[in-house]
Design a protein that fits this description.
Radius of gyration: 22 Å
Order of helices and strands: HEHEEEHEHEEHEHEHEHEHEHHHEEEE
Shape: globular
Strand order of the largest sheet: 9-8-10-11-12-15-16
Strand content: 15-25%
Length: 442
């Protein structure tokens, strides 16, 4: 056993050496300055967080670093500065997220922070990013309050529009945007009653509240069931569905990470959904088809929300990044990887335009005037200190919020199907198969 471990370690060391050698040759023409720009990346790399999400986001960070440095890094005052992302594990837990944020700021002395997967960690760290004057881009959390209520204890005071500098930005869509797309599609399908199964977190509760509000405004009856992340046996929860006079027209899963796959599979095994009478709507993780079919082999005909540009609309950057991801992971790229990749680029671009990586206020001002095309499309921010008045009727979450993320509903209609071949069923403008729904057995 000891011999095997040493041999494996030697192989890993050799691979790292070869990688570093190749990287050095790739950017040897750049003549980098001595000081490296350090960006902190916060992601979940341990349970109970979504480990798959964290691994994917960290991969996105490192791909962005490689691409930026291959292009001679960030140029400031005539000098090329290499970029480095220091990744920290939040474990998907608020308290750990706070601890690693402080470690990145005070021990690693980073110049900006990007990433984040779980809304709970995002909400717990916003005030710290503000207090420590650290430019921060939340790339994946969806709780509306990350770009709505603000960093002053979420008391409804509009700190985003008050005097001073706001260091918090968000590029992922708020739950209200995602929820409206999904619920509009369900209403279009003519559903009359829906059950929401949500996780007991700062993602699950507001996401369910937003979707419930949209559905009830359309006259749909809504019930909800709550679970804990990490649950493996859902029989006690699912038997409550069988206790109803009849199964609902649709079941919407608002559960993140691998837990959602276990739930989807057990629901399908019991014949609850998807069926000819009950629509199954799971989450964006389903787009990673290899992982989805391993975790939910009976999950054909489930629909899912997809955040991020769809494959048919990939630009050259997205297509290249997807090719690399498939080569490394054997699966198609998912939105949180692209979000992580783009967040590093956004921070580096802002630093270059600011002419500094040590002046946080200048970096924030540059972020507010972002105008750059990256893997998910053209990034910009409508509202900030550069444009501080949010018109009446415009949601508060549009402050420091990328306003045009692509959100679609997709559906599998063949067992084992690749996510690239899944149908985009909604909105109609993005439909790929000319249908709004593939009914099981239809």
């Amino acid at each position: 056993m000891r011999k095997y471990l040493l041999s494996r370690a030697a192989v890993v060391a050799l691979l790292i050496a070869l990688f570093l050698s190749g990287a050095a040759q790739a950017d040897s023409h750049c003549d980098f300055a001595d000081e490296t720009i350090r960006i902190g990346g916060v992601v979940p790399l341990s349970a109970p967080g979504s480990v798959v999400g964290g691994i994917g986001m960290d991969w996105g960070f490192q791909q962005a670093v490689a691409d930026i440095n291959a292009d001679c890094g960030v140029r400031i005052d005539g000098a090329n500065h290499r970029v480095k992302v220091i990744t920290a594990d939040s474990e998907g837990v608020s308290e750990y997220g706070q601890l690693v944020l402080e470690r990145l700021i005070f021990q690693d002395e980073v110049h900006g922070i990007v990433g984040f997967y779980h809304s709970a960690v995002g909400l717990a760290t916003m005030g710290m990013a503000q207090r420590y004057k650290m430019p921060t881009i939340y790339a994946h959390p969806r709780n509306d309050n990350i770009s709505a209520a603000g960093y002053i204890e979420y008391e409804g005071v509009p700190p985003r529009r008050s005097e001073g500098v706001d260091y918090v930005f968000r590029t992922s869509p708020p739950s209200s945007i995602v929820g409206k797309i999904v619920t509009d599609w369900l209403v279009e399908q003519g559903v009359e009653d829906v059950v929401l199964i949500l996780e007991n977190t700062d993602y699950g509760h507001p996401a369910a509240a937003a979707e419930r509000a949209h559905l009830e405004r359309a006259g749909v009856q809504v019930d909800q069931l709550e679970i804990e992340l990490g649950t493996e046996d859902f029989l006690p929860i699912l038997t409550r569905l069988f206790a109803k006079p009849q199964l609902p027209d649709a079941i919407r899963i608002l559960v993140s990470g691998e837990t959602s796959l276990n739930l989807t599979q057990q629901m399908a095994e019991l014949g609850i959904a998807p069926t000819a009478d009950t629509i199954c709507v799971t989450n964006h993780l389903a787009f990673q088809s290899e992982q989805y079919w391993k975790g939910a082999p009976d999950g054909n005909y489930c629909a899912f929300d997809r955040v991020g540009t769809i494959p048919s609309l990939y630009n050259d950057m997205a297509a290249e990044l997807d090719a690399r991801y498939q080569a490394d992971f054997g699966d198609i790229i998912v939105s949180f990887v692209m979000e992580a990749y783009d967040s590093v680029w956004l921070m580096a671009d802002a630093m270059e335009r600011a002419g500094s990586f040590t002046d946080p206020d200048a970096i924030v001002a540059a972020l507010e005037t972002t105008d750059i095309d990256l893997s998910q499309g053209r990034y910009y921010f409508d509202y900030g200190s550069h444009n501080p008045v949010i018109p009446e009727g415009t949601p508060a979450y549009m402050w420091h919020q990328w306003p045009v993320p692509v959100v679609t509903v997709m559906q599998y209609f063949e067992p084992g199907q690749s996510g690239l071949d899944a149908a985009v069923v909604y909105p109609e403008v993005y439909q790929t198969h000319g249908r709004s729904y593939f009914k099981p057995g239809g």
